[in-house]
Amino acid sequence: MKGVHVMNRGARHWRAGFLRGGIELRHLLRNPKEMFGHLGNVVVALLVTYYISDKVPGTQTPMSHLALAGFAAYLLFQIGLLSLPQILVTEREEGALLRLRATPGGIPAYLVAKCLLVVVTAVTTLALLLAAAALLTDGPLPQGPAGWLTLVWVTTLGLLAVVPLGAAIGAVLPNPREALALIMLPLLGLLITSGTMFPIAKLPEPVQQVSAVFPLKWMAQGLRSALLPDAAQAAEPAGSWELPMVALVLTAWTVLGFLLAVPLLRRAARRESGSRLTARHEKAARSGAMPA
């Protein structure tokens, strides 16, 4: 009976999370500023790849196609890892985590809702990027059912690997401004060292080994396998797409992210109090960050 009770409680959390996530998606669609921000990322990716004219070394694959696959992985990674910390620290400042303390199952449902919001945003951005690239710059699309299947599972597993991790980071960062500053520099470093813009085999081996620890390198490699011809494997360090390793690393990050996210969010909610919230608002008002 206890197991049935736990299963029923978990199902309620998922239902509540999806309902809340649907409401937040509708709010996003009514926010032009937020929508134009994601559109701007797509435009920048298209402009950069448009002016790349070389071939991938040792192949006839356009370097612009490799860069587009890398940009696609980076956009998924950035949205998944950066959006949630900003949302969480902002809503913590507004008292959302404090209110969750009084809601049964509030933290799991809240995490499900935020994950749904970020995943739908990321997948929509990816679809827009690939469609626009195919129409405007002769960009690559998956070839055949196997290519589309690889695109789907790499995208899904990649987002599962980074979205909970973003939630865990957001639970420990102090405020929205520091959230952006602390995360952007490592993100840009990973963009350069993960083989998203040029073949990773050109990088020093120690850099390759460090980048292989993080999910972006494997997300980019998985998307290249879905979007590029098999001949482009010649530019990979192992000479192959290593899809089993892609799945293994992304799964490991998925498990780690979920193990970290829920307890850290619960800890952040437990530490919230009316006096802490009031003190932060007074401090922000004195600094001019919000109206007095």
Q: Helical amount among residues, as a percent range?
A: over 70%
As a whole number of angstroms, the C-alpha radius of gyration is 21 Å
Kindly state the number of beta strands. 0
Strand composition percent:
under 5%
In the predicted model, the low-confidence regions spanning at least 5 consecutive residues are 1-6
Query: What is the ordering of alpha helices and beta strands?
Result: HHHHHHHHHHH
Question: Residue-averaged pLDDT, rounded?
Answer: 79
Distance between the termini: 53 Å
Tell me the number of helical segments per DSSP (H or I, 4 or more residues long).
Answer: 11
- Please outline the major beta sheet: none
**Overall 3D form:** globular
By helix and strand content, what is the structural category?
mainly alpha
Summarize the topology.
Blueprint: H1 2-29, H2 32-50, H3 63-93, H4 96-100, H5 106-136, H6 144-172, H7 176-193, H8 205-211, H9 215-227, H10 243-271, H11 274-287
